[in-house]
Design brief:
Layout: E1 7-11, E2 14-17, E3 24-29, E4 32-37, E5 46-50, E6 54-57, E7 71-72, E8 75-79, E9 82-85, E10 88-91, E11 93-95, E12 121-122, H1 129-132, E13 135-138, E14 149-150, H2 155-163, E15 168-173, E16 177-184, E17 187-191, E18 195-197, H3 204-211, H4 214-217, E19 219-220, E20 223-224, E21 227-234, E22 249-257, E23 262-263, H5 266-276, E24 283-288, H6 294-300, E25 314-319, E26 326-330, H7 332-338
Parallel strand pairs: 14-26
Antiparallel strand pairs: 1-5, 2-3, 3-4, 5-11, 6-8, 6-12, 7-8, 9-10, 13-18, 15-24, 15-25, 16-17, 16-21, 17-18, 19-20, 21-22, 22-23, 25-26
Length: about 350
C-alpha cells in the first residue's frame, strides 16, 4: 500500500476574496479550499499543502499552538480539522516552501511528497479499551490496508473517469473501526486497522468474529478460502455509536483473495456476502456513472445515514470493472460536527 501523502507541493489554482473579510481570502488547490492571509500567495505559486487529519509538529507551524500543549506519538503539535471561517469552509493548511528554513526553500517540485521531511503524521483517535486488545503482530503484510483517496486529491483523474463514463458501485461510508478477518495457509486471524490481534476475552473484534462464525464460513467444499474479509465495526463503545446499534456489528466493504492478491469485484463481493450471511455496508447505487463536478459531488454526499437519522459520513466509489480504482467523498457537514 502506498503511504498516504499528507503534505505535498501544490500549485495554487485560484485566489478568491471572502465577502466582508479584510485580512483573509481563499486559495484553491485541486479540490481543496484553504483560508489564507490576504496577499500571502498568488495564482500559480507553489506551496506546501497539508491535508486535514494531519498531526503537524509545532516546530513546523508554531502559530497552531493552543493554551495547552498536546502530544501524539510523542510529538507536540496540533491536528488539522475542517473549519468554517467567515462562513467559508477551510480544509488543511498552506505553508510557504521556506517553512523548514526561513532562508532556504525546500528543493521540491509540484507533486512532491514532503510528509516525512516535515514530520507530518496521520492523526488517529485513541482506541477504546474494548477494541485495543493484545497484539500478536503488525497488520499482515499479505493483506492491503483499506483506504481510498479523497476526491479532492484526484480531481483530474475523476474528470477523466467522467469522460470515459466509468461505472461505479457507491456505498455509504460508515463511521466505525476498521476490522479484518483472514484465513491464510491454515492460519486464522482478526485484525484492527494496524494490528493482528491475539484472541482474548472481551476484545470486541474477536467477539464479533466468533459470534458471526466468520472462520467456519470461509470453509467450503472441503477446502479453506484464503480470504481477508474487511469491513467496519460499528456499535456501542465505537465512535459514539452514531447508528444507535444494540450490539457491535460488522459491515463488510471488501473481500481480498490472498492467493490471487486482488479484491473481488463489487458484484462478486455482494453475492458472497449474501451466501455467507454477512452484513454488507449499505449500497446506495450498484451502477452509477457520475457526471457531477467535485463540488457538486461533495454537496451530494450530505444527508442522512441509511442506518439511522444521524448525518451520513459520505460515499465510497469502487469501480465495477477493476479492483484498483476507488475514491471517497466525505460529507463536509459531518466533518465539521464530528472531527
Amino acid at each position: 500500500m502506498t503511504e498516504r501523502q499528507l503534505a505535498t507541493i501544490r500549485k495554487i489554482d485560484s485566489i478568491t476574496p471572502i465577502e466582508g473579510a479584510d485580512f483573509i481570502e481563499v486559495a484553491r488547490l485541486g479540490g481543496w479550499e484553504v483560508v489564507v492571509k490576504k496577499g500571502e500567495y498568488k495564482v500559480d505559486d507553489l506551496a506546501i499543502y497539508i491535508e486535514i487529519d494531519s498531526w503537524v509538529p509545532l516546530s513546523v507551524a508554531p502559530f497552531l499552538f493552543r493554551n495547552k500543549e498536546r502530544e501524539f506519538n510523542g510529538v507536540v503539535g496540533e491536528r488539522l480539522r475542517t473549519k468554517r471561517l467567515k462562513g467559508v469552509l477551510s480544509q488543511g493548511l498552506l505553508l510557504p516552501l521556506n517553512i523548514k528554513d526561513e532562508h532556504t526553500k525546500l528543493v521540491s517540485e509540484e507533486g512532491d511528497n514532503v510528509t516525512e521531511t516535515l514530520g507530518i503524521q496521520l492523526y488517529e483517535k485513541p482506541v477504546p479499551a474494548c477494541l485495543a486488545g493484545l497484539a500478536k503482530g503488525n497488520f499482515p503484510s499479505f493483506i492491503p490496508k483499506t483506504d481510498q483517496a479523497r476526491i479532492q486529491n484526484i480531481v483530474r483523474q475523476y474528470e477523466t473517469w467522467i469522460c470515459n463514463e466509468v461505472d461505479w458501485e457507491v456505498t455509504e461510508k460508515l463511521d466505525g473501526s476498521s476490522m479484518t478477518v483472514y484465513q491464510f495457509q491454515g492460519e486464522y486471524g482478526v485484525c484492527s486497522r494496524n494490528l493482528d490481534l491475539k484472541r482474548t476475552e472481551g476484545n470486541t473484534f474477536w467477539d464479533v468474529a466468533i459470534r458471526e462464525n466468520i472462520h467456519m464460513k470461509m470453509f467450503n467444499k472441503d477446502e479453506w478460502w484464503d480470504f481477508a474479509i474487511q469491513g467496519e465495526l460499528c456499535g456501542p463503545g465505537i465512535q459514539g455509536n452514531q447508528y444507535q446499534l444494540a450490539r457491535p456489528e460488522f459491515f463488510v466493504y471488501d473481500i481480498f483473495d490472498i492467493q490471487k492478491q486482488k479484491y473481488l469485484l463489487p458484484a462478486e463481493r455482494r453475492e458472497l456476502c449474501d451466501y455467507l450471511c454477512l452484513k454488507h455496508v449499505p449500497v446506495l447505487w450498484e451502477n452509477q456513472c457520475p457526471d457531477e463536478t467535485v463540488k457538486e459531488l461533495l454537496e451530494k454526499a450530505k444527508g442522512r445515514s441509511t442506518l439511522s437519522n444521524s448525518q451520513r459520513e459520505g460515499f465510497v466509489f469502487k469501480s465495477n470493472l477493476n479492483d484498483v480504482d476507488s475514491f471517497k467523498v466525505i460529507n463536509n457537514d459531518w466533518l465539521l460536527k464530528n472531527e
